[in-house]
Write a structure and sequence with these properties.
Chain B: InterPro entries: Glyas_Bleomycin-R_OHBP_Dase, Glyas_Fos-R_dOase_dom, GlyoxalaseI/FosfomycinResist, VOC_core. Chain B: This is VOC domain-containing protein. The structure holds two protein chains of two kinds. Chain A is an alpha+beta fold. Chain A has one domain: Monooxygenase component MmoB/DmpM (Phenol Hydroxylase P2 Protein, Alpha-Beta Complex), CATH 3.90.56.10. Helix content of chain A is about 20%, strand content about 45%. Chain A has helices at about 15-20, 45-50, 55, and strands spanning about 1-5, 25-30, 35-40, 40-45, 60-65, 65-70, 75-80. In chain A, the strands form two sheets. Chain A has a four-stranded antiparallel β-sheet with strand order 2-3-1-5, with helices on one face. A three-stranded antiparallel β-sheet of chain A has the order 4-7-6. In chain A, a hairpin with a 2-residue loop joins strand 2 and strand 3 (about 35-40). Chain B has helices at about 20-30, 95-100, 110-120, 160-175, 185-214, and strands spanning about 15-20, 35-40, 55-60, 65-70, 80-85, 90, 105, 130, 135-140, 150-155. In chain B, the strands form three sheets. Chain B has a four-stranded mixed β-sheet with strand order 1-4-3-2, with helices on one face. A four-stranded mixed β-sheet of chain B has the order 7-10-9-8, covered by helices on one side. A two-stranded antiparallel ribbon of chain B has the order 5-6. The two termini of chain B are about 25 Å apart. The relative contact order of chain B is 0.11. The chains are: A alpha+beta, B alpha+beta. The interface of A and B includes residues 52, 63 and 64 of A.
């Protein structure tokens, strides 16, 4: 299971929304955080989110049994640990 | 979270040395328009060879003050080709590290930020960078002493959930830096545990607070 937490603030909503477009991904809330979960990898395209770099590179709040294998100007990929 | 009473009232003053008091007064008083609000002329005294000095203060708003020490006859100290009047660094010290220590002064609006940009751009110390970070917009320059100065405005207020997030980050950071192998990966893993433990309860507490104020 891949689990990514993102704080629910206006700058980050597109990150959760774009992640959730993958039918394998479910997005819900734990308190004020988006919890983004998938049985496989979670891949988020930065340009689709419209995030500027400063937002993009500070958008991840937590990783449960997961690790980031790509986090660059193109995309973020989270894989199960 | 701390239960200690929090009664401090901001910055009384922050103090830097200068070897260029004329440039410093020009920059802060004449270009930026920060009033001189206090100064001390002190003869050197005591067992050490303390030089005579002037300690002078500029008002940076909110009754907070930026202060300088000028020591008569004192020459700058060596230490490398990079840095400022207080700290010199060798060539191989990265610029992100040197720039990490800086003073940021707050303004309330875009108009105010642009006014200070205008003042700096008309001077010998023009704005070097203007950047929008996540939730703030800032301009940067270096003063005549090489100290990096930022003037910044908030693009939106900080929300309560950002205060929670900051506290979870710092608790996770303290945990991982006291552990064997500090890294961003370790921090984000620890922070996910703290989110799972605390975030839902925090949300409930916020909601009952909101109900109580209705």
């Amino acid at each position: 299971m891949t689990t990514l937490f993102v704080l629910d603030v206006p700058e980050n909503t597109a990150v959760a929304e774009v992640a959730g477009r993958d039918p394998a991904v479910t997005v819900d809330h734990v308190g004020p955080y988006f919890r983004i979960v998938s049985d496989s990898d979670i891949v988020i395209d930065r340009r689709t989110t419209g995030c500027r770099h400063a937002v993009w590179y500070s958008s991840v709040a937590g990783l449960a049994q997961s690790r980031i294998t790509q986090w660059d100007k193109d995309a973020m990929r989270i894989e199960p640990r | 979270m701390s239960e200690l009473q929090h009664t401090v009232k901001g910055v009384d003053h922050v103090a830097y040395p200068t070897f260029d008091p004329a440039g410093t007064v020009k920059f802060y008083r004449d270009v930026l328009g920060f009033p001189v609000v206090h100064s001390i002329c002190a003869a050197g005294w005591g067992p050490e060879k303390h030089p005579d000095f002037i300690h002078f203060f500029f008002d940076i708003g909110n009754d907070d003050r930026l202060a300088f020490f000028y020591y008569f006859g004192l020459e700058p100290f060596d230490g490398g080709p990079q840095g400022d009047s207080y700290s010199r660094f060798a060539e191989d010290v990265p610029i992100f590290f040197i720039r990490s220590r800086h003073l940021a002064i707050h303004v309330d609006s875009e108009d105010d930020l642009m006014e200070y940009r205008h003042r700096l751009d008309g001077s010998a110390w023009p704005v070097e960078m203007q950047i929008q970070h996540e939730t703030i917009e800032s301009i940067y320059t270096h003063d005549p002493n090489g100290y990096m100065i930022e003037i910044t405005r908030a693009l939106r207020p900080v929300t309560p959930q950002e205060d929670l997030d900051a506290n979870l980050t710092i608790d996770a950071l303290v945990d991982v830096v006291t552990g064997p192998d500090p890294s961003m990966d370790a921090l984000l893993t620890r922070k996910a545990e703290l989110i799972t433990e605390r975030a839902a309860a925090w949300q409930q507490q916020q909601e009952s607070k909101e109900m109580a104020t209705r």
